[in-house]
Each structure stands twice: as structure tokens, then as C-alpha cells.
Amino acid sequence: MPIATRAFAATSAEAPLTPYAFTRRDPLPDDVAIDIHFAGICHSDLHMVHNDMGGTRYPLVPGHEIAGLVTAVGANVTRFKVGDRVGVGCMVDSCRTCAPCRAGDEQYCVPGMTGTYGAKDKHAELSGEAITQGGYADKIVVDQAFVVRIPDSLPLDAAAPLLCAGITTYSPLRHWKIGPGSRVAVVGLGGLGHMAVKQAAAMGAEVTVLSTSDRKKADAERMGAKHFLINSDKAAMKAAAESFDLIINTVSATHEIAGHLQLLAHDGTMVMLGLTTEGLPIFAMPLLWRRRSVAGSLIGGIRETQEMLDFCAEHGIASDIEVIAPDQINEAYARLEKSDVRYRFVIDMSKLDHVA
Questions:
Q1: Minimal CA–CA distance to 144: which of 45, 28, 37?
Q2: N or C end of the chain: which has fewer CB within 10 A?
Q3: Domains of the chain with CATH codes
């Protein structure tokens, strides 16, 4: 029998999010049913709600940073049991047969992964929803292959943003083999950036934060950064030339990146993580001169996401959060557009009971 679900949804690109009722599918043999306790707010939620990339379908329940408890499992489920602390990130399915899927990189599925929200729902006939609906809700049903275990030492609320922000930064740090002796710069100390600083420092890297002002310098140092660089300070930028093996660029708005390439050492890479909707010009000479690279990275596979959660638990890493009630989502969106959050909003979905 379909599961009655309460949520907050966007009904158009201009309208505020409002309460929304719908149904989840009754768990299939491989499914896990989850009571959502907390859902993080990601900057990409704003892009989707506002239809910045085109193609958004409404009504849309955002949210792909989901933490909660298992309430039921299908007959074939072996990885989880009722009561387990679990998370769901940015995807709930993939083709599972293409080369990236077989390699554990489901996020790069060639036909395309199934996003946690806003994607075509393969089980629409069971749920009644044409698209997948996300975590700004009190319940979700997900195939066990796309559910991860949250270690007991991680608070559920602060663990929720790890399912997107945490894995988005962890994956490139691992891919580019960051460890003791590595020199890492993080551009932007926001929801992604603060996770990159904590994780890179825990891996043994010497971390520098690049920002437009020094108002977050104390925070950066508390999180493990050894240096703080104002990117409008031309003298400081010049002095830092060829200093970094890896630059993690987390800025999700149009910004100047050409000048940052000179900061990369020989064979250094700038990895773009922020979702921007306009082009960012670069020039060939800084790349050619030191065999530098500009790359991109998209979340991580399920196996790597579990590895990230275990790493964060081992090192005592969680997101810095501000917990809000569901009826504060629109206020949080307005503040997020002004970068007025330190460093991730998390919705307490238990307070849906108090929403009229």
C-alpha cells in the first residue's frame, strides 16, 4: 500500500515552497523505507527550484542530503534492518551496467543516474508521482543499493549535509591523492568549502583558504586551515604563485578563475565543484606553462560515500549547521542566496507535525 508522505514543495519557479502531500511506493523486495529526521539544504536546491538550468518539473520536493532511521525493509534486503541510522544522497538509482556503474562511479552513469528529486521516476505507477521527490519530507523509499549507513558517532543532523557537501569534496581529494605533504587551496568557505578544509586537513594536507574577505578567517583556522588568502590582494596572490597541488573551487556563482591558475604548481589541478550557469573564461598560457589542469568532479559513488562517512566518523568531522523548522525553508533560501549561513541549513523534519 502506498505510503502517505508530507513534505514541502515548489509549485513554480517564482512561488515559495509550501506544504505538499503525496505518496511513496510501498517497499519493493530490494527497498528500504526510511523516516526522514533531517534534510540538508544544498545550493543546487535553489537552482532546481528556480529552474535556473531549465527542465524543472513541478510540484518539486527538493532535498538530497537525507538522514533518518529505517522503518521497514523489503524481502531481499540484507544490508539494513529496522532501526538502522541511514542516509540517502544525490541519487537513488542508475543503470548499474555501464562501465562507470560497474566501477562504483554510479554518479557518472552513462545513460544518467536517477536523481533523488526531479528525475523521471521509474516507479511512477506505484507512487503516483511522475518525478522522484526528495528529502524535504517525512518519509522516503529507496533501493538498498543507494542507501548508506551513518556511523553511530555522527549526529544525524550534522551528518545529513555529508550526503552531498561531504562527498562532493571528499571525492576529488581522494581522486587527486591528497595526503601528508599535499598543498591544497579551497576557494570559498561555504557549505562545500568548510567540508573541504576539514577533510583535507584530516588527510594531512597543508590547507589554505581563498576568500573575498577575512571575516571567516577564524573559522577557517578552527577547521584546520594553516593559511588564509584574500584573492583580491594582488601582492599576496603573486607571492602565492605555484604554491598548490590542488585547488578545490567551491564557488557556485560566476566568478573570475583565470588569475587563480597561476597559484597551481607544476601538474597542479583546479577542480570545479560549484554549479555555475555561465561560462568562466580561462587562458591557455597558464595551463601550458606548468602542465596545469582545470577539472570537474560530481559527488561520489555509493561505495565512496560510505567510505567518506566512515572517514568523517573516524576523524570527528561533521558539518557546521543551523537547524531550522520546515516553515523556515523560504527564509533559509533567501539567506542562502546572500551567503548568510554558517555553514549548512538542515531541516528538522520532525517539526512537520507543527506545520498547519
A1: 28
A2: C
A3: 3-164+318-354 (3.90.180.10), 166-296 (3.40.50.720)
